[in-house]
From TrEMBL:
PROSITE patterns: ABC_TM1. It holds the Pfam family SBP_bac_3. One of its GO terms (biological process) is amino acid transport. This is Amino acid ABC transporter substrate-binding and permease protein. It is a multi-pass membrane protein. It comes from Secundilactobacillus silagei JCM 19001.
């Protein structure tokens, strides 16, 4: 038993070390690219391709958010308009790739996007990982508070020892920690979640850029804005474009375009245009008005779940058969795979497939999400099938052998049909869980139900109702699936 356990451990360690090696060689490649600065072809590469890819998180009005134009959902905002002008100056088309804010810089580092633009502050910490353009807009820093607290919180000093909310990994988060005495800083991935936390009094104030604060105040009468009072270096706190290290020629070309844009006063014009879109979004904030958003979310959720179920079952079956194989290698690989997948979060696996494997193969977000969820489901399905097979009385196998049946025929015609009756309830639970767990793919920009939920929250400035609608939709989908699974389970029980 000790030898067997050691072999499994060695297999798991080999798998982990192989993955580490794969990503250890990537930084050295980046270093080589940076070292060869004189031979930088970042600008020429984009011109040859004919398009520039912009990574953004469209839940941050007025910088970037989504609207429905001509029956189609589009990302708009000041950042998008600025990037459109830059693309025009470069003579290429603009492609906008949406994802969570926490991943926009990663997208640039891994080559998924050429430029990250999402109201990003070029802090010294971020400059270590990416190159930045010059500042294209200085919006300033403010706090959002509940209007009922207007008499209590009037400036930065009054927020001492209070709970301050800020988007995780942002300048606002770091400023609250370093410049407000005794403040307890609560970070969340999305400003829509933070605004909801503010309105439900989970936090006392929200650190946010002034244009976004103004947008919320204009569209939500329960909120009030106060200036931060921070004494900051504008070169570190303005908004800039992030690019991959070593993109000197592209940075120079973008800086030239930014200079022209600022000279013409275009950022303020773009802000005004964004304000018009925001008024359209908030003119009708009923959930029925946004039914197309939810419908698209349902479509992608069902696509991901259905395909992942099929491939998850196939993979799980193969892994289960490997588990019962007399081959020590196949047995060890099966155990190592299951232990590794079950021992790592699905969110990390999704990011690994999209950004990690994407270093070698540029996979679309939807395909990456399906692959990650399928690989994750396969590990759990393997355990379900293994348990079902083990539940079949060994006497059945022995009887089959006495009748001269081959092992493969015994497994196919005797063991698996009986095991299926025991497997089905647990397998059904896995199918239902898959619908809910697939929501994690929204972090890489897959427009599933959770992604659309966050878009509706950002567009309507309504925190609770979109969440409630999404809950009902998930319940309906899982309820229908449960009824269907129960029907077939009943048929199996009565089958002779």
């Amino acid at each position: 038993m000790k030898v067997k356990g050691r072999n499994i451990l060695l297999t798991v360690m080999t798998l982990c070390l192989s993955l580490l090696f794969l990503f250890t060689i990537q930084p050295s490649h980046s270093i080589t690219t940076t070292t060869a600065y004189a031979a930088d072809n970042s600008l020429q590469r984009i011109k040859d391709r004919g398009k520039i890819i912009m990574a953004t998180s469209p839940d941050y009005p007025p910088y970037e958010f989504q609207v429905s134009k001509h029956g189609k959902s589009q990302v708009v905002g000041m950042d998008v308009d600025i990037m459109k002008q830059v693309a025009k100056d470069l003579g290429v088309k603009l492609v906008v790739k949406s994802m969570s804010f926490s991943n926009v810089l990663v997208a640039v580092e891994t080559g998924k996007a050429d430029v990250a633009m999402s109201g990003i502050n070029p802090t010294p910490e971020r400059r270590q990982s990416v190159d930045f353009s010059k500042i294209y807009y200085n919006g300033g820093q403010s706090f959002l508070i509940n209007k009922t607290d207007a008499g209590k919180y009037t400036n930065k000093a009054s927020l001492a020892h209070k709970i301050i909310g800020a988007q995780t990994g942002t300048l606002q988060y770091n400023l609250a920690k370093s410049k407000i005495p005794g403040a307890k800083v609560k970070g969340m991935d999305k400003n829509t979640d933070l605004v909801l936390a503010l309105k439900t009094h989970k936090i006392d104030a929200l650190g946010i850029e002034t244009p976004s604060a103004e947008a919320y105040v204009k569209n939500d009468p329960d909120l009030k804005m106060i200036k931060s009072g921070y004494n900051l270096n504008k070169n570190d706190t303005g908004s800039a474009m992030a690019l991959k290290k070593g993109s000197g020629t592209l940075v120079a070309a973008i800086n030239k375009s930014i200079t022209k844009i600022k000279a013409k006063g275009l950022p303020n014009q773009y802000l005004a245009q964004a304000g018009k879109y925001m008024k359209v979004n908030t003119h009708n904030t009923s959930m029925m008005h946004y039914w197309t958003y939810f419908a698209k979310g349902i479509e992608y959720t069902l696509i991901i779940s259905a395909i992942s179920v099929i491939f998850g079952v196939l993979l799980g079956t193969i892994l289960a058969l490997m588990r019962f194989s007399k081959s020590k290698l196949l047995h060890a690989i099966s155990i190592a795979y299951v232990e590794f997948v079950r021992g790592t979060p699905l969110m990390v696996q999704v990011m690994f497939v999209y950004f990690g494997i994407g270093i070698v193969v540029n996979l679309p977000a939807l395909l990456s999400g399906i692959i990650a969820v399928s690989l994750n489901s396969g590990a759990y399905v393997e355990e379900i099938i293994r348990g079902g097979i083990n539940s079949v009385d060994k006497g059945q196998t022995e009887a089959s052998a006495s009748l001269g049946l081959a092992k493969t025929d015994t497994m196919r015609f005797v063991v698996l049909p009986q095991a299926l009756k025991n497997i089905w309830p647990a397998l059904g639970n896995e199918f239902v869980s898959l619908i809910k767990e697939s929501s994690i793919v929204s972090i890489i920009g897959v427009t599933d139900l959770i992604y659309q939920l966050n878009i509706v929250r950002a567009d309507t400035y309504r925190g609770v109702m979109p969440v409630f609608v999404a809950m009902i939709i998930y319940f309906v989908m899982t309820f229908i699936l449960t009824r269907v699974l129960n029907y077939f389970e009943g048929r199996m029980k009565h089958a002779k």
